[in-house]
Amino acid sequence: xxxxxxxxxxxxxxxxxxxxxxxxxxxxxxxxxxxxxxxxxxxxxxxxxxxxxxxxxxxxxxxxxxxxxxxxxxxxxxxxxxxxxxxxxxxxxxxxxxxxxxxxxxxxxxxx
Length: 112
Prior knowledge:
Blueprint: H1 2-5, H2 8-19, H3 31-38, H4 46-64, H5 67-79, H6 86-98
């Protein structure tokens, strides 16, 4: 609660959530989230990370307004994300959890 009390932006967000501003057709849909942040101890430290998230969003928005910078950042991000590929992840899940026999991939011609 100390973090919330010290951050007017975070207070405003929580008040908007509590007021139903984002959910006029589904009253109460965010109540569990609000309670997890304010009553149950914010287990995932979302409140503690709010300010740094806002700053990261501001930096991303500024970069997006510069098409050359955004393109460069996008290419570098993609080029350096190899370890986080979905192919590698699925292969690891299979090796460590599922232990299924791999099936050869079909080529486009085989679907016709």
